[in-house]
Structure formats: C-alpha cells, structure tokens
Amino acid sequence: MRAGGYWVLATGITILTCACSVGPKYARPDAPMPPAYKEPAPAVTPGAGQWKPGEPKDDAHRGRWWEVFQDPQLNALEEQVAPTNQTLAAAEAQFRASRAAVRIARSALYPNVTAGAVVTGAQVSGTRATTRQIATPPSADLQVLFNVSYEADLWGRVRRTVAANVRNAQASAGDLESVRLSLQADLALDYFQLRGLDMQWQLLDSTVSAYQKALELTTNRYNQGVASRSDVVQAQTQLETTRAQATDTEVARAQFEHAIAILTGRPPSELSIARAAFTPSPPSIPPGLPSELLERRPDVAAAERQMAAANEQIGIAKAAYYPTITLGFAGGIESSNLIDLFDWTSRFWSLGPALVQTIFDAGKRRAATAQAQAVYDASVATYRETVLSAFQEVEDNLAALRILDQEDKEQGDAVRYADRSLALANNRYQGGITTYLEVITAQSAALANQRTAVEILTRRLTASVLLIKALGGGWDVSSLPTEQQITNK
User: What would the pLDDT profile of 449-473 be if each residue is shown by its tens digit?
Assistant: First the structure.
C-alpha cells in the first residue's frame, strides 16, 4: 500500500511538471492606421478652454471632459448620470457577472473537495432462491466519506478558460465605459440642444417686442392717414407669426428636458431646467495623434479584448485533442453500526489517477476548432471595423467644426447686412419712400439670418461634444481592470 501511494504521488508530480499549453499565442493584429488626420484641428477660440485627456485614476472612471464648456448647470447634470441611470446600472451588473465568471473558471485550477454522510438500511427478500428458508435479518450501513478530485491542466485548457474569461471581463469593463461615455455625451447633446432652443426663444421674444413697436408705429401712421390699413394688417401678421414661432420652440424644449431627466435616472416630472442666458464659446479640442485613438476609446479596447478572448478559445478547442487526466482520492469510515463507525478499522480509502482520451467523435473536435478559428477571424474583422469607425467619427467632427467655424463667420456677415437692410427699410418707410412690404421682407430676412446663426452655434457645440466622444472622452486603455482587480471580490 505504501509503495502504491509513492507511485501515485510520483505520477502526480510528473503530470504537474509536464503541464504545457496548446494553441496560438495572442498578438494584437494590425489595424488601419493613417499617419495623420485628414482634417486639421479646429482653430483655438479666444477665451475658450482647452480640452485634454483625463489622467486615469483608481477613483475616477473618466476625465470630467464636460467642464471644458464652463457651464455649472451642465456640470451638475453630468454628475447625476453615473449613480442614477438605469442603462448604466445594467452595464455595471453585466460587468460584475463577467467578474464572477472569472472566479468560476479559476476554481477549476484547484482540487474539488466534497464530503457527505450516507445511512442505508436493507432487508433481503426471504423468497429469493439464494435466501429461501434462511432467516435474513435487516442490515444497516453507515458511511462518512469525502472525495478529492483534481483535473491536471496538462494542455492549458483550464488556464486558457480563465484567460478567456478575464479578457471577456475586461471587454465588459470597456463596454461599461462606452455606455458611460455615450450617456454623458447624450446628456450634453440634449442640454446644448435645449439651450439652443432657449437662444431661439430669446431671439424670437426680443423680435416680438420689436415687432410690437413696429405695429404701434404703423397704427399711429394709419391713424394719421399716412399709412394704409393693409400696412397695419401686415404688421399684425408678422407679429403673430413670430409669436407663434416662439411658442413652437416649447415643444422640442420640453422633449429635450424630458430626455435629460431620463438620462439622470428620474421621471420627467421631477426635473425642470429654467431658462437662462446662454452665450457659450465652443472650446478648442486638439485631437492628438491617430495612433493614440486606439488607447483612448473604450469601444476599441473592448473589441481588442474580445479578440484576445476568441484567441484563447482556439487553444481550448485544441486541448480537446489531448487526454484528460484526473487525480482522485476518496476515503472515509464505514460500519454497519454506530458503535463501530469511528473505530480505526472502519476506515477505507482509494487513490489514483484516471486518464480519458476520446477515440472517435465523428469530427466534433475538428469542427469545434474550426468554429473557434472562425469566431476569432470575425472578432479581428470587428476590431478593425471598430478602429475604422473611430477614425471616421473623428474626421467627421473635425470636418464639421472646421466648416461650421467658417460658416459662422459668413453667417455673422449675413446677420450684419440683414440688420443694416432692415434699418434702411424702416427709414425708407418712415420717410414715405417705400411700402411696408419692404419692411416686412427685411424683417423676415433679418430674423431668418439671426436664427440661422443660433443654429450654427448650437451645431458647433454639439460637434464639439461628438468630437470629445469620438476621442474617448479622456479615457485611456490603462483604465481597464487588471486580472487581479477582476478576480478580487
């Protein structure tokens, strides 16, 4: 018995020292990488803040990028996204589930120990051929036993399973940060759209006041016999039309306010954003080098980690070609009565390795390996597509900022000329040189150009938010949790 024990121990040591890992080693495939962005960085706006990627910290998931807009109301709303948004809560729960999956996989690296107690009673039939006419009293069997089993990870199946789950958990962490960034960006977009409508309303409200004065002037001229009744009606029409336009902005504003409430995890009835003076200046956002984009976007990091997990699955599939060796030990005490159960002679045990090799599976393992390889190839394509989409988003918003900056300057000139035209039309009308129709035409042109200028400013702000989002919002790949952080509870 002692010699057998030594043989089993030697076998176990040999198995553990010969452990290796089959399957391909992971190396991140190349991704399309332009040497520079096609679009130049937007010009620095005087007085505007400079945006910089946030430095990763253990207690900060992401840089507070929204502070570059220097809006206290926006800052306060952004702080409410993380703790109360239900979409983010769901993503965080998925990350916790992926961490638990890692701990489940790691448990296979250690022996599995079970213990139990069995009490059975038996009465053999007296009419059986072997027991006929023989008195057979009832018997009892008492057992206290435990089992230890351990699968030797000779071919790295368990280690690769753990590694795959770690990569999946890291990808889940990247997905969590992508959701966080998207929600923060959505809130900023909704907020600037709301404030853009506020600027529209303020413009229309001041225009209504100006048109009210123009109506009073035209009415006085009509009472004096200088103007016609049609001039008064035209002035009233212009006034009421503009007043209706101001009222119409309330519909979209209410919807944006409701969307912001949902993003902060509250019902719309619990959030009201008061009108406020809003004269923002879009900040300058340096995009950095194209190569940095792979480190600064959580969705790119998540796609890369999914690719690494798929690579581990190839090794897991290939490990199925090799035999499985399990070391087992069972022991305990057994007796037919309770008095003798704890006697030394009641002990029993068994110890030894077990080897299982699949001889024929009708191509199952080969198909599983091909499937794992195909999944990996698909993950590579997804990763490269994610990188290309990231560059597209950056280029799109750099182009938008460049073009909108030029359009803003041109629209500013259009507003000034429209105001000058309106002043000339008013002077000509008051001097009796022209009809009120010229005034109305000039008023419509001036208001349309002023509203277009507000819309361009709103679009510049939203493009700035989208560019920050495209650049990763100050996040960095070093913020992904390590294997130790994932496995710790």
Answer: 999 999 999 999 999 999 999 999 8
Domain boundaries, the chain: 27-123+155-321+365-487
Rounded-to-integer distance, Cα 165 and Cα 306, Å: 10
The beta-strand segments (E) located in 291-417 are 324-335, 347-356
Per-residue b/e over 14-24, b at no fewer than 16 CB within 10 Å?
A: ebeeeeebbbe
| CATH fold for domain 27-123+155-321+365-487 | Outer membrane efflux proteins (OEP) (1.20.1600)
Cα–Cα distance, 214 to 225 (Å, whole number): 16
Which of 243, 242, 217 has the alpha carbon at shortest distance from 231?
A: 217
Distance (Å, whole) CA 301 – CA 196: 34
- The H or E element containing residue 113 is strand 112-122
Contact status, residue 330 vs residue 336, Cβ threshold 8 Å: no
Distance, CA of 146 to CA of 348 (rounded, Å): 11
Residues 6+ apart with CB under 8 A from 370: none
Residue 265 gets the label, from left (phi > 0), alpha (psi -120 to 50) or beta, of: left
Q: How many CB atoms lie within 10 A of CB 480?
A: 21
Closest CA to 342 of 144, 479, 176: 144
Looking at the DSSP assignment, which residues form a beta bridge with residue 148?
113, 329
Distance separating alpha carbons of residues 271 and 422, to the nearest angstrom: 41
Among 414, 434, 415, smallest CA distance to 425 is for 434
Q: Could you tell me whether strands 324-335 and 347-356 are parallel, antiparallel, or unpaired per DSSP bridges? A: antiparallel
Query: Which is higher by pLDDT, 157 or 48?
Result: 157
Return phi, psi of residue 182, to 5°.
Answer: -60, -40
Query: What phi, psi does 333 have (nearest 5°)?
Result: -130, 145
Tokens of 291: 């190569």
Give, in order, the Cα–Cα distances in Å from 294 to each of 51, 55, 387, 478, 479.
Answer: 18, 16, 7, 12, 13
91-143 pLDDT per residue, tens: 999 999 999 999 999 999 899 999 998 888 887 776 666 655 565 677 777 88
Q: Are 25 and 312 in contact (CB under 8 A)?
A: no
- Provide the edge-to-edge strand list for the sheet that holds 112-122: 112-122, 139-152, 324-335, 347-356
What is the rounded (10 degree) CA torsion for 373, 376, 382, 385? Answer: -80
Phi-psi region of 297 (alpha: psi -120 to 50; beta: other; left: phi over 0): beta
